[in-house]
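Session log. Operator J.P. requested a structure for one protein chain; no other inputs attached. Running the standard single-chain path with token output.
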Amino acid sequence: MSNIDRRAIRRSKRRDRVVRWLITLGGVTVIASVVAILLLIVGVTLPLFRPGQCREVARARLPMGIRPEHVVAVGIEFGADEHGGAPLASYAILRDATLAILDLRHGRLVSRNRLPSASGSDGPGAPSNRETGGALPNEASHIEAAEQHGAGRWTLLGSDGRVSLVEISVAVEGDLQGHRRITHAVTTLGEMPPDGGPKPQMALMRISQNGDLVCVRLLPDNRISIVQRVVKENLLGERTSKLERTTIEQGAVGRITAMTMDSDGQTLYAGTERGRILRWTLESEGGIAAAEIVPAFRDKRTITALAMVLGDVSLAVGDSHGEVSTWFPMGGGREARLGLAHQLGSHDSPIYRILPSQRNKSIVSVAEGGAIHIDYPTSERRLLAIPPEDGTPRRMIGYSARGNAIMDLGGQGEMVAWMIDCPHPEVSWETLFGKVLYEGYSEPTYAWQTTGGADFEPKFSLVPLLFGTIKGTFYAMLLAVPLALFAAAYTSQFTTPRLKALVKPVVETMAAIPSVVIGFLIALWLAPIIERWILAVFASFVTIPLVFVLFMVLWQLLRWSDWAKRIENGYEFLAMLPVLVAGVGLAVLLVPTLEQWLFAGNFRQWLFEAMHTRLDQRNSIIIAFGLGLAVIPIIFSIAEDSLSSVPHSLTAASMALGASRWQTLRRVILPSGSPGIFAGTMIGFGRAVGETMIVLMATGNTPILSWSPFNGMRTLSANIAVEIPESPVGGTLYRVLFLCAVLLFLLTFLLNTVAEVVRQRLRQRYGRL
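Structure written below.
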């Protein structure tokens, strides 16, 4: 062998090695990229299921001059720098009608100011930050109890029966030099003087948006006294007010042990020692509009704590068995009855206080034994549990308005603060994939809804999205698969080579049409036409086959002519076009008669009354046309290549044995090409599952569970496109959308895996033909 030949061989081997390494590098890069994408979206999703965390950030004792028995209630707020050295702003409402502002991180008293008008010694216009001495006033001016509702609003019950509603705000402010100081403001929102009766045991006060004031007192004889200050404004803008008094006698249902009210003062709740929940709806101008007694617990356990969950729909109930549950009215209008919605985790001792969050619908429950639980009612998820310290009961609990801190005041005067981190309380496996009972619903359901008001309860069920993805794909494949496979079989086996060379490139070019263009045409042009002629669409499924049968009977008489034989030799589609047009035209002509005979002249009305469904303009039929147009070229191209690759010797042998072209197609060509046909169908299925723009523009994006072809749907891919612009980075919705992406990835991966396994088995079975 010459030196030239050896050099050429070595050069060829070098090139082969380089190409092999390049191909290997490309393949590994593709696999690594796919794995990296999967790890990225999974990594963004995983924090959804991270349990709540807490860490102790401060521990101090009450300042000198303040003893634990002087404290009526406590509150806490974090500074701006939660992870740095910002002070913890806390406060204590003292029995002597003063407010002590505390720097909990450094354990010092910042200021001690008198609460305006809380004791009755100050008038309504008294200053809110007047300094007082350390000596306690006389007994008549003491604060007996404090009830918190909303962000920093407190109902204060004086020892003389006076009830005040104050708003306390505490914040940490800093300057450019890094100095921080605790500031506070106290505002009196309303006040009710003593009514001259016996000293109340419990009091509530609320003020509505229009200024109406509602004061509720629980008297020692188990009577409830309600005083409403109703404000009216005449046409001239003059405002007048009057007091309306109502007394509720509830001696027969047992001693009332807990009370609460919604923030607008319209609904009053009470719990009794016999396990009953009482609910009253108050008239806006005084009096009781409706009353309800609910035997909540058959074992007649004592209800020890009540609180309204954010939104004023759900009622959180704590009892003497240490269990916490939520209740809300079920049913519509005046027929709504209070019912058990969610049963949360239990404590080892009776519940003595429940604090609702002001950011979401989570609640803090505190047991007499000292345990603190944070639960989210809708998901029934235990977010966090803080055990008691050495079994020491907790005296007072403060919960920050932002839901990021809890403060505990022990019986020995020790204050402890924890920073709370429960970032995604709304999410659990149950809320994502199970039926959930939401506020305002009468039964558990699957729901996706992410927008609403400030107290809106987000709904993150992925079941309607998975269902919509499957539904849209089903209707698309129902139209696309038969048309694509029939077209592939006709093009590969029956038409002429010249026509095949023209048809196949045209159909394959259809795959390059942007999906946004298809969605635009389907949504704005085709949807109104289908909506108008919906009966004609369904009638076509009968008229087209009928016209075809009549045509075939007629064709048997004409097929022996020379021009008919030329059409049968690869140009059959020319004869089928008039059949298709005639079938559709006949359906259009029959629509008025059919609608009059079968549907009393109004198909839409009949559909609503008989089938309990509405005809949406953007429905599953539109999706079938839109997605079908996108999927047909893929299935057609792969199936046609597979059928055309069947060896001609098999076709010739079959026909030599006397089989017709249709028999040869059915028994020889289709089995031999079935691996490719199945692969093309599954690739088209994957394209339909992941399609975004067509379903986004043509479905109406309604996340409902209905197989009806007259309704739309919302798919996973369209949901991501719709919601991602409005989702805050790192928020719950943001991470749930990444979970949708994970499900799409897994769904397409599963489909491709199943398709490959089936394709290999088909190849092993028919590869020997």
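Operator note: The first strand starts at residue 53 and ends at 61.
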